[in-house]
Specification:
GO molecular function: hydrolase activity, acting on carbon-nitrogen (but not peptide) bonds
Mean pLDDT: 87
Bound molecules: 2-acetamido-2-deoxy-beta-D-glucopyranose, zinc ion
Number of helices: 18
CATH superfamily of one domain: Metal-dependent hydrolases
Keywords: Signal
Pfam families: Amidohydro_3
Oligomer: single chain
CATH class of one domain: Alpha Beta
Distance between the termini: 33 Å
Structural class: alpha/beta
Number of strands: 25
Protein name: Amidohydrolase family-domain-containing protein
CATH topology of one domain: TIM Barrel
Largest sheet: 9 strands, mixed
Shape: globular
């Protein structure tokens, strides 16, 4: 999977250890004092603590903008818009600032700590061979010589066995090449010096498998039994653990402490602001991490991104009411009222649960991570406890069982009203919603269940999806967007699985081509199943109001109007003036959250 679009920057600061950037252009971080540097073109009314901003143009709403608006006033104390207006009817308004404004953009499905950790890890995305992985790891260790010990395992993300030709093994893990096929002797000596004996845990591109070094394998019993809902890859050798089997490894992992997580959060938020994000839905956060989020969001000036978090029990797919965290702050820098459940694994590793076998592996139809009765009882228990239920479902069987579970919960939650009425208040979501049988697409519409879709997953998977699914399932079931548009999908990226840039997601949704190459798969270069493409403003709606609705924040987020959060994004041009291809490389000019500038391209 190509990931050439992502660029990382170095965070300079007190955290000396372990910031790794192993590739791409290094741009100096923008250290942007919040709310400073805006004195020139802005009216500040000190008594009211109100500010008025005017721009070349302001689009107040993705789909139904108020015409003519070019100014807004906000309350600094509240961090909300107090007035949105057209300056032509005013006598005295501030000079227009350059640029065109969009409502604050949200990513409807990402992983904040995972992304922060990714920014501090070896980046293996797009590596085409074990040699290349080894080179990236060596570069990483050049910058992070102290990482890779038993107390501080080195982490990496983004390898893909399809690019490597086979599943890697601990013996091939770039540390201990006993096998010289992939390395010259000279390189091996160096590899031995720098890499041998290190503790390395490298996640697959979809984070559904992890590949560990011999030092970590040595911690595990030599005779590992199979794991339900997971796979221990044993051929060509040991080293890779998938889905539930990852827990065997994770049980030994010395987890990052609070200080390190704080560093992850800070790095992630800075990067996310650069691409125009003002908020994100964190799709699965453990209770202890939510407590850390709670503290940071109330006390730390570096917490500048709005987060809507779904709680995930320490033990996946359980009911853990004693650990449950619900948070709603007035300022809404953090809110938690959803829970994350997982029905299946990923398509790339044949882990998605399908009704019928895979077309390219007829011996399997994938696997569920929980059975139908457990999924239903969890959905009922969590929703009865007042939580929004968000179920990860990729394969058509997983999506079917997720809908069954939701239907059963509606029946007990709202015995006197229709599933659609019940859903309007509950806002159950299916995360990914990738492959859905036509019968279940119909049920989804009847119930109004919200699909939470990542458009770049479609363009990353398009090269092999049809091999897995066959032509018929691909055409009728896979990667729906237009077909589910009336359900107000939440759009996102699933960062760090995909780059977080929402304009790449918008491009993927509109063009159904890869934002990295600009092309569709062979035979469909002009766009993959373009009948499922959506319009530009519909795509932006999914990243603004769609995301807001999926987080119970409609009217407050993803829109510019009186009473909404004073969040906005500034572009050089109007979004519909850059052209489809222009979306791929679009650079945000400024990002503002709660009336404070959190990113400025020009410093
Ligand atoms: C390693 O060497 C063995 C034979 O010694 C060979 O069968 C295998 O394919 C090699 N593996 C790799 C990854 O090159
Ligand atoms: C489903 O899984 C649960 C928990 O593993 C188990 O107790 C139950 O017997 C299973 N139910 C069925 C119908 O297989
Ligand atoms: Zn995810």
């Amino acid at each position: 999977m190509a990931r050439t679009g992502l660029s990382l920057s170095v965070v300079v600061g007190a955290v000396a250890v372990a910031f790794a950037v192993v590739r791409l252009q290094h741009q100096p971080a923008q250290q942007q004092p919040l709310g400073v540097g805006i004195d020139v073109d802005v009216d500040v009314d000190v008594e009211e603590a109100a500010q008025t901003f005017c721009y070349q143009g302001i689009r107040t709403d993705a789909l139904s903008p108020d015409p003519g608006v070019d100014c807004f006033t906000l309350s600094l104390a509240e961090g909300t818009f107090t007035r949105v207006f057209d300056s032509s009817s005013e006598a005295d308004t501030p000079k227009r600032r350059p640029g065109y404004v969009l409502p604050g953009i949200w990513d409807g499905h990402g992983h904040l700590l995972g992304y922060g950790e990714f920014l501090h890890s070896a980046d293996l995305f797009g590596s085409g061979s074990v040699d290349e992985i080894r080179a990236r790891l060596k570069a990483y260790f050049d910058v992070n010589p102290d990482v890779g010990t038993s107390e501080n395992w080195a982490r990496g993300f983004g390898w893909d066995q399809m690019a490597l030709g086979q599943m890697p093994t601990a013996a091939d893990d770039a540390l201990l090449f006993s096998n010289t096929t992939w390395a010259t002797k000279q390189d091996m000596l160096e590899a031995d010096d720098r890499l041998k004996g290190r503790f390395l845990m490298l996640d697959r591109v979809d984070v559904h498998c992890t590949w560990v070094s011999q030092a970590i394998l040595d911690l595990l019993p030599s005779d590992l039994p199979d794991v339900p809902g997971g796979e221990i890859i044993r051929t060509p050798g040991m080293g890779v653990f998938c889905d539930n089997a990852m827990d065997i490894v994770l049980a030994h992992w010395p987890k990052p402490n609070a200080a390190r997580k704080k560093t992850f959060v800070k790095s992630a938020m800075k990067e996310l602001h650069k691409v125009g994000l003002v908020g994100m839905h964190d799709a699965g956060v453990f209770p202890d991490d939510l407590k850390l989020y709670d503290e940071l969001s109330r006390t730390d000036d570096d917490w500048t991104l709005r987060v809507y978090a779904m709680m995930e029990c320490k033990e996946r797919n359980t009911f853990c009411p004693d650990d449950a965290v619900r948070i709603s702050h007035d300022g809404s820098m953090l809110s938690v009222r959803g829970v994350k459940l997982f029905a299946d694994g990923a398509l790339g590793s044949w882990g998605s649960a399908m009704i019928l076998p895979y077309s390219d592996k007829p011996s399997t139809s994938g696997s569920l991570l929980v059975n139908a009765s457990t999924l239903t009882s969890l959905t009922k228990s969590w929703s009865a406890a007042g939580f929004q239920v968000n179920i990860h479902a990729i394969g058509d069987l997983a999506n079917r069982l997720a809908l069954d579970a939701m239907a059963a919960a509606f029946a007990s939650l709202c015995p006197d009203s229709s599933p659609a009425e019940c859903q309007a208040a509950r806002r159950f979501r299916i995360e990914h919603a990738q492959i859905i049988h036509p019968d279940d697409q119909k049920r989804m519409h009847e119930m109004g269940v919200i699909p939470s879709i990542q458009p770049t997953h479609a363009t990353s998977d398009m090269a092999y999806a049809q091999l897995r699914l066959g032509a018929e399932r691909t055409r009728t079931e896979a990667y729906r967007m237009r077909s589910v548009l009336d359900l107000s999908p939440v759009l996102g990226s699933d960062f760090p699985v995909e780059p977080p840039n929402p304009f790449q997601g918008i491009y993927a949704a509109v063009a159904r081509r890869s934002p990295h190459t600009g092309a569709g798969p062979p035979g469909a270069e002009g766009g993959w199943h373009k009948e499922e493409a959506i319009g530009l403003w519909e795509a932006l709606d999914g990243f603004t109001k769609g995301a807001a609705r999926g987080a119970f924040l409609e009217g407050r987020a993803g829109i510019i109007r009186k009473g909404a959060f004073a969040d906005w994004v500034v572009l050089d041009d109007e979004l519909d003036a850059v052209g489809e291809e222009g979306l791929r490389g679009l650079k945000v000019r400024e990002t503002w959250v709660g009336g404070k500038m959190v990113y400025s391209r020009d410093g």
